[in-house]
Design goal:
Blueprint (H helix, E strand, L loop, with lengths): L1 E5 L4 H18 L2 E6 L5 H7 L4 E3 L10 H25 L3 E4 L5 H10 L4 E5 L6 H6 L5 E4 L11 E3 L6 H4 L10 E4 L7 H17 L4 E5 L5 H9 L8 E5 L5 H7 L2 E4 L3 H10 L3 E3 L9 H11 L3 E3 L7 H12 L2 H13 L5 H12 L8
């Protein structure tokens, strides 16, 4: 079996794509090629994982200036042509679009060449590249049931996340612990709101422990703010620029404050952790808000818009949840109901089926 995975840009696209590639290689002995762009994180992660990577030149069309949009439109035909040439050389059985800049050109080229295609869509609302090809793809692997309506032959598979998130045990008792993070680079708005709310949080949730990943930019300010946080009632904090072992941090948490990108949402459900989501307001198509609301509707999360991220209100929300063990348990159970422990395997099987290969080797 020969498979191309096309797309990238951010870890939210590339990390699940690598999990799919690993499963294709493990179960089907697949030979895999990645197609990305020079500006994406795939340039670091894909070669490090041992997979070949070829590049097309294409930029963004969403949430960018008119000049950049015009340049992208000008580059797009050449990107489709270059992707088509790569497809001719590699001769894939299936092309899997994972979203991001390179996904559109590669998937369009595959559709025009009548090569089987599979769209992977981790967000509730598909990204621009997947919306363009939605009507033409052979199949789609989606995270949310409501996403299936955008595609032909869609299946709910979930988003691949590390197995360690599924192995996190249910926390019973211990020190009430809050985990705060905003992605590997941190989230400035969340960091500032947490710093502002510390005095009120100390008053309303005495004895709380906080684990906070700030990113590089806000680390020193946060460290200084938390220095005065420890009190006679036992409050404590650990501040990190970056948390290497995120599953271990999740395991200690009773509640998580974070963004709501697709990978983060998948990790929350895998770990069964109650969450306060603060969607990134400038995300394409406002997809983070829609992701967060999907979990809020089933009682797994609370959504706080960044524009309403006021310090006292955030402290009250955190304290109210940490003091309500029954609600935290109900949120945890609701989150786990949305988890997909076999996502990588199910996506690989769907890709093989689209390619006309019915049985895996395992």
């Amino acid at each position: 079996m020969r498979a191309i995975l096309a797309g990238g840009g951010t870890g939210g696209h590339v990390i699940p794509a690598l999990a799919i590639a690993n499963e294709l290689k493990k179960s089907y002995g697949a030979e895999v090629l990645f197609i990305g762009t020079a500006r994406g994180i795939e340039n670091r992660l894909v070669p490090a994982a041992g997979y070949p990577l070829q590049l097309v030149r294409v930029g963004a069309l969403k949430n960018v200036s008119l000049l950049i949009r015009a340049k992208t439109a000008f580059d797009l035909p050449r990107a489709v042509w270059d992707a088509g040439r790569m497809l001719n050389q590699f001769a894939p059985d299936v092309v899997i679009g994972v979203g991001g800049y390179a996904s559109g050109p590669a998937m369009l080229a595959a559709v025009m060449k009548h090569i089987p295609t599979l769209a992977f869509e981790p967000n509730v609302v598909p990204g621009f590249a997947n919306r363009v090809v939605a009507r033409f793809v052979s199949g789609a692997a989606v995270h949310f049931e409501e996403t299936a309506k955008y595609f032909r032959h869609a299946e709910v598979t979930g988003v691949p996340v590390r197995q360690a998130f599924f192995e996190i045990p249910v926390k019973h008792g211990g020190v009430p612990t809050l985990l705060v993070f905003g992605g590997s680079q941190g989230a400035h708005a969340i960091n500032e709101a947490m710093i502002r709310c510390l005095p009120e949080l100390q008053r309303q949730a005495p004895g709380i422990r906080i684990i906070h990943q700030t990113g590089e930019r806000d680390y020193n300010d946060a460290l200084a703010a938390y220095a005065s946080f420890s009190g006679t009632t036992g409050e404590s904090a650990q501040v990190f620029k970056f948390i290497e072992d995120m599953p271990a941090a999740f395991a200690q948490a009773d509640l998580v404050v974070c963004r709501s990108g697709a990978s983060t949402v998948a990790e929350i459900t895998a770990a069964g952790k109650p969450a306060i989501f603060v969607p990134f307001p400038r995300a394409a198509d406002d997809h983070q808000r829609v992701n967060a609301e999907a979990l809020a509707r089933v009682g797994a999360a609370v959504v706080v818009e960044e524009s309403k991220l006021e310090g006292v209100w955030l402290a009250e929300t955190i304290a109210a949840l940490l003091c309500d063990a029954r609600r935290l348990q109900a949120m945890s159970e609701a989150a786990r109901e949305l988890a997909h422990p076999n996502a990588a395997r199910d996506i690989a099987r769907l890709a093989a089926r689209v390619a006309g290969i019915e049985e895996s080797r395992d």
